[in-house]
């Protein structure tokens, strides 16, 4: 079946460096993508989203890149801080009425920020 | 800010018990969702609702039911709890219909079935 996945289950990053979290998706009909951050003991928190008519979107210290040709999504975090330590999920939705609102989530990447 | 509140952070229930998980959102969102989260499996959709009184099955509805009598409240029901339903349960809401938008999640209910 079609799914959303992540390349790396754990990413260790030194404080101050940039982080890149990758996500591959297989559903070519997907047109909406979201990145979530989940800290221990909390629910997933929205970080940034991007629609398929865009290649790049920037937020505060974060950038999402979408490459539809290879069905690849990435989240870049600039100047990683200890507070960025969390599990990061990508999610997709096709936008079709029969699947609207039903996000498919990847398994998540644990980001560990070291001093 | 949107607030999604799940009534319990931790629950311990016995096999065969009927379990109710409650979720309330305060932003007048039309859409509400129940997911379960298990290590290595990510989030899986159990049920969702686009409006009051309506519900639709997600990817893993077996063993669960839901109720949405009021717009702000979405309940997940385990008719007869089993040990394989031990999990973290996450409720979420989002606005609008026919338009993709981020889901806003509660902090989860960790259910243990013994």
- Give me the Rg of chain B, rounded: 13 Å
Report the structural category of chain A.
mainly beta
End-to-end Cα distance of chain B, whole Å, is 37 Å
Count the helices of chain A. How many?
0
Taking pLDDT < 50 over at least 5 consecutive residues as the criterion, the unreliable ranges of chain A are: 1-8
Question: End-to-end distance of chain A, in Å?
Answer: 40 Å
Judged by helices, strands and strand pairing, the structural class of chain B is mainly beta
DSSP strand count of chain A: 11
- Share of helix of chain A, binned: under 10%
Describe the structure.
The complex is a heterodimer of chains A (115) and B (114). Chain A is an all-beta fold. Chain A has strands at residues 4-6, 10-14, 19-25, 32-38, 45-51, 56-58, 62-67, 72-77, 86-93, 104-105, 109-114. In chain A, strand 4 and strand 5 (45-51) form a beta hairpin. With 114 residues, chain B is an all-beta fold. Chain B has no helices and 12 strands. The radius of gyration of chain B is 13 Å and the shape is globular.
Give structural attributes.
heterodimer, A: 115 residues, mainly beta, 5-stranded antiparallel beta sheet, 11 strands, disordered N terminus, B: mainly beta, 3-stranded antiparallel beta sheet, 12 strands
